[in-house]
Amino acid sequence: MKELDLLKKDWQLKANSFQQVSEKDIYKMIHKSSSSVVRLILIIGIFEFLFWIGISLFSNNDDYFNKLNIDNVVTFLKVLSYVHYAIIIFFIYAFYKNYVVISTTDSTKVLMKNILKTRRTVNIYVWYNLGMIIFCLIIGFYIAYFFNPDLAMMKDKIEHNGIKTMLAFIGIMVLMLVAFTLIFWLFYKLLYGILMRKLYKNYEELKKIDL
User: Fold this and answer.
1) Which residues cross the membrane (predicted)?
2) Any idea what DSSP says for residue 17?
3) What digits encode the pLDDT tens for the residues 3-58?
């Protein structure tokens, strides 16, 4: 936005007779910048979706679940994954719709409204993904503890060593859950946080002009 700042300084130095033209120029720059940010959000969302699809396709989960012999749980996880992908596709469609609307907007108030709507959609998307990650981690820990035969000896040891050992084990699981959640939160903060700040800066600039 350095160009915008230079344009604003130039606008302030000019006579009032040129004020309206300069305001329109500022609006055009903000409009173009906002459209570019939302397009980038859409592209990142699509690539993120394809990345997780690729991880799912190339992972060896089928062999792992077949070894555990938990058909009901596997069915639940498959249904959950389909629902999750459907929700992600819905978010990507929402990103696309926001991009189209912002790209074709020719009103300051409408653009401000759509910027706020886009920020809200992205925030909901991020929190949904974090919630899903936490839920899947909890399910993964549960399956590993109760059904994985490789952990049977550790499970027996924990259950026979009393409440202190059990609490210690739970504490380790909670720490791992927090660590993984924090990593993904930082990932989303870095991935979308910069774009959200740019959009909010555009929103603040739009509040200062009156077309």
Assistant:
1) 37-59, 79-101, 122-147, 167-188
2) G
3) 556 555 555 555 444 445 466 777 788 888 889 999 999 999 999 889 888 877 77
For the chain, domain boundaries:
22-206
- The identity of residue 126, as a single letter, is V
CB atoms within 10 A of CB 5: 10
Q: Please, which residues have CB within 8 angstroms of residue 7's CB and are 6 or more apart in sequence? A: 22, 25, 26, 29
The identity of residue 94, as a single letter, is: A
- Which of the 8 DSSP states describes residue 151? G
- Cα separation, 71 vs 88, whole angstroms: 26
Can you give the pLDDT at residue 90?
A: 95
Q: Which two structure tokens, joined as six digits, stand for 189?
A: 């903060």
pLDDT digits (tens, 9 = 90+) for 120-179: 999 999 999 999 989 988 888 888 777 777 666 777 776 677 677 777 777 888 898 899
Spatial separation of the C-alpha atoms in residues 181 and 204, rounded to whole Å: 31
What CA–CA distance (Å, rounded) separates 99 from 20? 27
In this structure, the chain runs to a length of 211
* This prediction's pTM: 0.79
What would the two tokens of residue 80 be? 């959950």
**Half-sphere exposure for 45 (CA within 13 Å, toward CB):** 26
